[in-house]
């Protein structure tokens, strides 16, 4: 009786070993199939670091890049910060939102001027033939001050020069084109109603106005003294 039980256990062990060998052979001989969970390629997409209001000229410090799966990249995206820098936002862009071409205008493009203007502000064009503007050295996004020379009364000290309106953000530059070669040069600003009147007076009066472009890091009001003939003679010790 004990011998028959031993044979049964022996046969069971042999059978189990055989089945295990067959299973291992099948696993070893099965060809490797490609994994269906392979990672999809990622693409860098330019996004906003912070919230960007309309009419913002993009600079590199406002932007960064984030990796997106290729099938989730928004149409019209930029892959490098340099590609998006210099463009102007036409709508508000939220922080971390991808920058796409549909919400931007090229700097100086006509569509920039069609944007919604903040309540209490007006859009004005200030014609100017000053040397910087004429040379194309004033661009959309620059901040400028107006240096005005006005005539008051008669005599040697009738001409007075002073810094007038300051911190004007250029939202558009109007210049002659191939299609309109006689178009006047002008800088376009968004200002409050009172400043709009000051700009009109400077334009209509016997006033010579030059534009001074500020550093992007400077936004404080500058304090300057009015310059006339007496000032020059005293400051630079000019002898009569």
Descriptive labels:
single chain, 240 residues, alpha+beta, 6-stranded antiparallel β-sheet, 5 helices, elongated
Account of the protein in words:
The chain is an alpha+beta fold and 240 residues long. It has five helices and ten strands. It has helices at 2-29, 81-84, 131-134, 193-204, 229-235, and strands spanning 42-48, 63-69, 88-89, 104-105, 121-127, 143-151, 159-163, 168-174, 186-192, 207-213. The strands form three sheets. Strands 5, 6, 7, 8, 9 and 10 form a six-stranded antiparallel β-sheet that branches. A hairpin with a 7-residue loop joins strand 6 and strand 7 (159-163). The longest helix is centred in the N-terminal third of the chain and has 28 residues, at 2-29. The N and C termini lie far apart (142 Å). The model is unreliable at 107-114 (pLDDT under 50).
Layout of secondary structure:
Elements: H1 2-29, E1 42-48, E2 63-69, H2 81-84, E3 88-89, E4 104-105, E5 121-127, H3 131-134, E6 143-151, E7 159-163, E8 168-174, E9 186-192, H4 193-204, E10 207-213, H5 229-235
């Amino acid at each position: 009786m004990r011998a028959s039980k031993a044979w049964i256990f022996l046969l069971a062990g042999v059978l189990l070993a055989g089945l295990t060998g067959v299973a291992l052979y099948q696993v070893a001989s099965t060809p490797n199939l490609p994994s269906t969970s392979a990672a999809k390629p990622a693409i860098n997409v330019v996004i906003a670091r912070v919230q960007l209001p309309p009419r913002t000229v993009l600079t590199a410090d406002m932007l960064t890049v984030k990796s997106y799966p290729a099938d989730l990249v928004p149409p019209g995206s930029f892959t490098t910060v340099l590609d998006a820098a210099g463009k102007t936002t036409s709508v508000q862009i939220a922080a971390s939102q991808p920058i796409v071409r549909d919400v931007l205008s090229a700097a100086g493009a006509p569509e920039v001027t069609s944007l919604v203007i903040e309540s209490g502000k007006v859009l004005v064009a200030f014609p100017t033939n000053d040397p910087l503007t004429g040379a194309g050295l004033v661009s959309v996004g620059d901040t400028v001050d107006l240096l005005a020379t006005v005539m008051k009364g008669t005599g040697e000290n009738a001409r007075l020069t002073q810094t007038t309106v300051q911190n004007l953000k250029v939202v558009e530059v109007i210049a002659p084109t191939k299609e309109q070669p006689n178009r006047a040069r002008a800088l376009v600003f968004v200002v409050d109603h009172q400043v709009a009147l000051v700009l009109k007076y400077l334009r209509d009066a016997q006033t010579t106005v030059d534009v001074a472009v500020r550093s992007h890091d400077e936004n404080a009001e500058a304090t300057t003294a009015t310059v006339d003939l007496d000032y020059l003679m005293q400051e630079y010790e000019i002898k009569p």
